[in-house]
Design brief:
Layout: H1 15-27, H2 32-47, H3 54-57
Amino acid sequence: MPRTKIATLNLRIDPGVKEAVREAADVEHRSVANMIEMLIRRHCDDAGIIVPEQNEMFPGKQHE
C-alpha cells in the first residue's frame, strides 16, 4: 500500500551537495526526495531515533 506524503520540507544546501544527492539518487534509481528521505531514515536508525509511520501519527486516517 503506497504511503501518502503529507509534509513538505524546504531547505537550502550547498550546490555541490545537491548535485551529489542527484547523482546518488540516479545511481539507485530513486527520486531526489526519496533519496533524501532514505538518508534521513538511515541516519535516524543509526542514531537510535524512532521515525513514526503515518498510521501511528494519524491513527484515524485511512490510506487508499
